[in-house]
Amino acid sequence: MEHQELVKYLANTGKDPSRLIFEDELTGLYNRRYLYHLLNTQVAWDQLNRNPLSLLMMDLDYFKQINDNYGHQAGDQALIWLSGHLRGVAGTTGMPIRYAGDEFMILLRNTDKKSSLLMGEQLLQNIRKKPFKPNEQTDQISLTLSVGVASAPDDARNSKALIRQADTALYSAKRNGRDQMVNAGEVKPTDVFAKTVIYQLNDVQIVGRGRQLSVVAEGLKKFSLRQSQFLIATGAAGMGKSDFLETVRRNLARSKTWQSMVSGVPQEMYRPYYLMEKILVDILNRRKDKGADVLKKMSPLEQVYLSRALPLAGVDNNLIKDKDDRTQREEFFDTLLQFIPKLVDYNPLILFIDDLHFGDEATLMLIRRLMLRSDFPLLVCATATETHNTGKDNRPVALEHFCETYQEDLGIRKIVLTPLAAADITKHMQDLFPNIHIPKGIDEELIRVTQGNPLFLNEILRKLVSDHKITLTGKQWLVQALEEGYLPKSLEEIVTEKIAALDEESRQMLDQVSALGEDVSLSMLIGSSDQMEARVLDFVDKATAQGLLNSEFQVNDEVIGFLGKRILDITYNAIEPDRKEQLHERIGNYQESLFQQHLLPSAATLAYHFKRSTDQQKAGTYEQVLATS
């Protein structure tokens, strides 16, 4: 049996292979994807003392004025002009990179802080000496740069911290008048507190969940004794369920267990086994051999059934042509039931599943059967929003029906994330802002406004920092007096203000991200928008600065997501119906074209229907799944 098709599928699932390039289209420099790839695969971060690494991060001062006054063509010429300067200064030792929009970098391997500062100073001098001239008819334009410089190990010990330190130094250069370079090691905390606090707020923050984490600890203790466990963190939207799950996952990241992290998707919840397919893809990608050793030991009949969930070449579908539908369902189910334990060598497996309320019935039934096996310890740690929705024929959604039927059988434990108390808010603020002075009554006011919602609380704290209502003086954080009516009345109000602060092009791109849903690959976003990569990255950075999006690099591609599912819902629900329909049609046509060009290796990747309603036709029924269990 050939294995290449599966390997191709695992490498490209959820991505647009045609967009996974390492070169910027406009300037010809390396792009952000290449930078992340290099930092994550080719830098020995445990050997920085012998092989230091430096990063210059810069952007053109007042670049928007060039576009406004001379047009976008002149703006593009200015970026090409700057890229030429970067190449000249970098020479053979540095690597010029277009990071996004008018943001550029020079990566310097085996280069310490002193040498990188000299290169930065040379770059500033060259820019000042050689003004930019768009064309023969236009006068010369004197452009300047702001530059931030960070080095590892002096300022950082990993790629994420290095980029953040350089970005913070660049932020300081711009705040202090532009046309200058700032060393990350000399940045004054009072100059950049807004930037550093925003970084903290973007990271996972878990507040007031000690009691709930103790329940997880009890489940882990039983799991360590090879007893399967099923834990579901529940609560209203914005209660921090995803952050809670991520905290548990990070704490277990170094444990000697197989782990898989996936999320439920509303558009697919009626497609049988879609969630198990995501789990299989994740586990296979974690294996060095991509599952080849297990696959070659499967019988031809098992390979046929497995090919329904994963693309396998060379299978003989004639082996099942005489079997009725019920028999095929049962044998497909049994094939998966045997395949999963073999993938992890019968070692304990932890499934982290966010938004399990969007899980499909078939996957839930398969998880049940796996949990009942005495030779295969399984821990399911999931999140779910408590709903009482019913589907077709007034049947409850899959997870509710599953829990009602098998709660006692599987020992399902629900961990309720309740609203925060005033003491939780005070502690959260003290953790974020050491030595903070909080005026009397502020915590009660925040409780009144947020109703103890962690997401809403963090958004208000972000607003307080951005509006300089929380300031740093020396080593003392201070909360300024708040005017009557200053605090927003709802999370919707904050999100709406953030969206309004974006330019029209960015708002349209944000609509597209929300239509694509959660965890959107950058390559898919670029391909479906028909925009140049640097322009899309510029939008991502603007939306991230506004506290709407974040991004993480994963295997040659960035994954874009909203800071919270509630923010995603608010953004999507604000789109006009006609605009939604246009977006879904365009995205659907785009993915269909990828499949027709054989850029998507399996029809399974077309499962996204681009309809965010739950009244779509269901594929399979609960009774059919029960028949196979």
Folded structure, characterized:
The protein has 629 residues and is of the alpha/beta class. Helices cover 48% and strands 14% of the residues. The chain contains 25 helices and 16 strands. Strands 1-3-4-2-5-6 form a six-stranded mixed beta sheet. Helix 4 packs across helix 5, helix 6 packs across helix 7 and helix 13 (325-343) crosses helix 25. The longest helix has 20 residues, at 577-596. The protein is globular, with a radius of gyration of 26 Å. Residues 391-395 and 602-629 have low confidence and may be disordered.
Q: How far apart are the first and last residues' alpha carbons, in Å?
A: 29 Å
- Proportion of residues in extended strands: 5-15%
Helix fraction, binned, reads 40-55%
Please report the number of helical segments.
Answer: 25
Low-pLDDT runs: 391-395, 602-629
Q: What structural class results from the helix and strand content? A: alpha/beta
Average pLDDT works out at 89
Q: How many β-strands, per DSSP?
A: 16
Quick one: biggest sheet? 6 strands, mixed
